[in-house]
């Protein structure tokens, strides 16, 4: 009887603490991406961000249990304000209200702004087999702008389609313009004009065939 009574009292006390008092707790979220805000202000001075020494941080938030339990990792955003940055390295504080974070400041490198026009190609997302056939697209070229050292590595702009959404019948898609290097890898900290390109495409087929090369002399 005493054991049962003790368990009942303990359970009632736990319910009181959790639901009536709603105590303050803390929780740590890791691998939060850091983004740059107000980069447009840099562009007005012919400047652009080329790199950051830290691109992901850990964040510890503190609050009432009920609020923390509702908080999702996707609800947390870490940004650095580049509006007042000058050319070269800038040490900036992150714009988040938290109990603690893994980095108190982030070094942001700013360079002269450069602009480049490049061609567009359309493909499926990484790992998806096949190739789309483009019937029509709104732009033949896209203007890419950003830091000089990054712009020189831009080879083209890639438009990625989801193979599951492309059918035998031509459909129109609005696709984010992604600046990439010669190997097709995305280059960060760049902006494009326009930001999205309209593409009308349908499902194509690919086939590997033998290539017979005639060699003379």
How does this model look, in words?
With 217 residues, the protein is of the alpha+beta class. The protein has four helices and 14 strands. Helix content is 16%, strand content 46%. It has helices at 2-21, 39-43, 65-70, 148-151, and strands at 24-37, 47-52, 56-64, 78-81, 88-93, 100-101, 105-124, 132-137, 141-147, 156-161, 171-176, 178-180, 191-193, 196-203. Strands 2, 5, 7, 9, 10, 12 and 13 form a seven-stranded mixed sheet that branches.
Please give the structural blueprint.
Blueprint: H1 2-21, E1 24-37, H2 39-43, E2 47-52, E3 56-64, H3 65-70, E4 78-81, E5 88-93, E6 100-101, E7 105-124, E8 132-137, E9 141-147, H4 148-151, E10 156-161, E11 171-176, E12 178-180, E13 191-193, E14 196-203
Query: Average pLDDT value?
Result: 86
Order of helices and strands: HEHEEHEEEEEEHEEEEE
Biggest β-sheet strands, sense, barrel: 7 strands, mixed
User: What class, by secondary structure content?
Assistant: alpha+beta
Contiguous runs where pLDDT drops below 50 for at least 5 residues: none
In short:
By secondary structure, the protein is an alpha+beta fold. It is 16% helix and 46% strand.
């Amino acid at each position: 009887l005493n054991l049962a009574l003790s368990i009942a009292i303990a359970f009632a006390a736990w319910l009181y603490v959790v639901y009536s008092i709603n105590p303050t707790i803390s929780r740590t979220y890791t691998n939060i991406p850091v983004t740059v805000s107000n980069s447009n202000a840099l562009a007005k001075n012919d400047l652009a961000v080329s790199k950051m020494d830290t691109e992901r941080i850990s964040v510890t938030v503190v609050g009432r249990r009920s609020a923390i339990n509702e908080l999702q990792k996707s609800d947390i955003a870490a940004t650095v304000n580049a509006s007042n940055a000058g050319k070269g390295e800038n040490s900036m504080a992150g714009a988040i209200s938290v109990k603690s974070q893994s980095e108190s400041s982030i070094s942001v490198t700013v360079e002269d702004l450069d602009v480049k026009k490049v061609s567009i190609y359309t493909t499926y997302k990484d790992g998806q087999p096949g190739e789309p056939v483009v019937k029509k697209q709104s732009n033949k070229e896209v203007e890419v702008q950003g830091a000089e050292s990054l712009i020189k590595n831009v080879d083209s702009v890639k438009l990625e389609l989801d193979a599951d959404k492309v059918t035998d019948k031509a459909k129109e898609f609005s696709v984010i313009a992604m600046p990439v290097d010669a190997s097709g890898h995305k280059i960060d900290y760049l902006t494009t004009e326009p930001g999205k390109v309209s593409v009308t495409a349908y499902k194509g087929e690919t086939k590997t065939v033998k290539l017979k090369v005639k060699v003379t002399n």
